Amino acid sequence: MITLYDHPRSGNCYKVRLFLALIGVPCRREFVDVLARKNQTEAFERISAWRQVPAIEDDGLALWDSHAILLYLAQKRAPQWLAPLPHSGQMYAWLSVSSNEIANSLQPLRLTRVVSHAEAAHHLGVREEMLDLVGLRQRTDRLLERLEHRLTQQEWLAGVRSVADLACYGYLSLAEEAEIDMRAYPALSAWRRRIEQLPGYIPPGHAG
């Protein structure tokens, strides 16, 4: 069985939990208390090179990074979630949006709302006085505007449903925790509902 090194409040961990649920693959969840720095050990580094969650162990393979895990699981267990040509390039492009634009806007903005600014600064690797809350909100607003525009044109980010949708959904499912009013983004909200209606869907707070 796959072992998932997990934290229940992490959007990146949620992406992996959600994908495993959607494809019907059970896992053994191993809680990693990142707030208590339990990931900052040499033992955990043997599983996750950057000492980050999520990470998995599967058939003797240790793998970290949520997007690498999604692609690995899709290739091994659920190839229907890999966009075929000509959509595959768009799938990788939207995975990049999750790793870059979302990771540098909505993801840290939400973090500043759910933990203290000092704790958020620690996880972001900056001094507390370097937190740019105004800039984070501006980048988040631009991100949401671009996603809204995209999703008024098509139902799925890559043109067909793919792991890129789940990669972006991880933190977009938590937008309200960043004090975002999603009523301003009807197409984006409809896309979230499409994911939430998929068989096997679990919400972010699901404990199973």
Automatic annotation (TrEMBL):
Residues 84-208 form the GST C-terminal domain. SUPFAM superfamilies: GST C-terminal domain-like, Thioredoxin-like. Residues 1-81 form the GST N-terminal domain. PROSITE patterns: GST_CTER (PS50405), GST_NTER (PS50404). It comes from the Bacteria. Gene3D superfamilies: 1.20.1050.10, Glutaredoxin. InterPro entries: Glutathione-S-Trfase_C-like, Glutathione-S-Trfase_C_sf, Glutathione_S-Trfase, Glutathione_S-Trfase_N, GST_C, Thioredoxin-like_sf. Belongs to the GST superfamily. This is Glutathione S-transferase.
